[in-house]
Amino acid sequence: MEKLQEIKQFVLAKTKGNALKFGDKLPHSTEQGKYTFMDNGFWVGGFWTGLNYLCYEMSKDSSYMEFARSSNHRFTKRLYEDRQTTDHDLGFLFSLSSVADYKLTNNQEARKVGIDAADELIGRFHEVGQYIQAWNVWTPGDPFSEENRGRIIIDCMYNLPLLFWASEETGDPKYKNVAIAQAETCAKSIIRPDYTTYHTYIFDSETGEPKYGKTFQGHADESCWSRGQAWALGGYTHAYRYTGNMAYLKIAKQCAQVFIDRLEEDLIPMWDFTFQGGKEGETRDTSAAAIAAASFLELAKHVPAAEQAYYHDLAKRIVFNLYEFYSTKNDPENEGLLKEATAHKPKNSGINVSLIYGDYYFAEAVARLLNETVVYW
């Protein structure tokens, strides 16, 4: 517990120092130890507000809530004025901003924004194929971009809690029904028979017929991108939490085992499991480790007692290793919490950096280990 308290103080101090510098800006990834920002939050803006709400829960220091709320105008502008920029990551954006605010404070305006975001998300649902379209058509006529009309990506499984929450909050099953449809479609397509995952999967947007798996951020179409595998194990864990469907718990546990079996000796995965065991020029992804650690702690709540300690202990060891060997605890000028994250290796973008979502899930895992968070997902 003493080590966890040390890590907690590290998270609190670094986050407050950053918030005092960042103002209402939304960080994405670091360059030479300094965070860069996305005006509209990109797909990652909620992780910064979520990190501040976590710090509020762990400290009861109201300044963190003020820091989180200072960015609200960026989220509402995007939802109500710049809708062409929204995609399936509405869950990441609004579960950790508006919904978190409402759960913590009963802020009714935040509740409305969260439900409006859920309405926007189900508006992306393709009835014929029973899937939520992940991305927009970025460049009409470009073959890859055109495929977006029928593309799902594994990250969406971790966006579905927004929809489950909206049904619980409103009593309207339409949100939950879409979330379940997405989970079922993913289970039959993007989850392979051996419980590894494709990054994306393409459907015929007119007929709904499944076509093929394809990567974007992974090494190859048939490889297993480690962060995507973490999204799967956590996404299906939360789907089970909201539905009680044992099939989802089975998928979560099997995806977890794939992840565990491919970890490096220090429990931090390579960016793609193709490179398990390491390869010169290839990098780890601490953000995948952090997502998995937080997800293992949620999974531990839903398995028999004999298995709970296994997942809990594994998550704790990952958190401790991240802190000891991959954190910025000895680098006060570095604005990130975790180093050696990998954003988009195929495009050589964000390599060996801090990523705000890696920082967020690291903090979430710490808060979970301390039993000091109650509102997330």
From TrEMBL:
GO molecular function, one term: chondroitin hydrolase activity
A GO BP annotation: polysaccharide catabolic process
Active site: D89 (nucleophile), D155 (proton donor)
One Pfam match: Glyco_hydro_88
Domain of life according to the entry: Bacteria
Transmembrane segments: none
UniProt keywords, alphabetically: Hydrolase
InterPro entries assigned to the protein according to its UniProt record, in alphabetical order: 6-hairpin_glycosidase_sf, 6hp_glycosidase-like_sf, Glyco_hydro_88, UG_Glycosaminoglycan_Hydrolase
Binding site for substrate: D89, D155, G213, T215, R227, W231
Family statement drawn from the similarity comment of this UniProt entry: Belongs to the glycosyl hydrolase 88 family.
The protein's name: Glucuronyl hydrolase
UniProt organism field: Paenibacillus psychroresistens
Lineage of the species this protein comes from: Bacteria, Bacillati, Bacillota, Bacilli, Bacillales
